[in-house]
Structure prediction request, 160 residues.
Amino acid sequence: MSDQTEGVLLPPGWYADPQDPARERWWSGASWTKFDHRAAKPGLFGEAHARAFWPGANALARRALLLLRIGLVLLFVVMATSIWATAAGVALTGTVVGGFVSMLLCCVGFGVAGLVFGVRAMGASAALGGGGVAVHSTVASGVLVLWALTLFAFALVLIA
Prediction:
């Protein structure tokens, strides 16, 4: 790889990889580094918009999105199981409600972790991209925590 791009030194940032246009490589301001990742797919609204919603090299944004997805799956499992149990006429004993409560606490844990990673990803998004994913993950993780805590409060009322 050449250390210069047509004789002009560019500011540090992610640029199209000179050897593989389907990837982006980090330019340190003086030379190409070993850090690369798949380039964002071109979007209808331009490269900046596509880059904001493609986590790319922003590992914090990817982790926040993963934690959000795990928490949402757990929450939907709890909700579907409780709806099924109510429709089937299953008595909501302490054991059943206790299982729901423990899964809801896991949802809260994944949501809080998603919030932490999302906030950190927003700070790193200026250099790494993925700002849209970071904001989406942070807001949705906050909603997940509030939703899980609301269901948790209802479960505690059922136990009492």
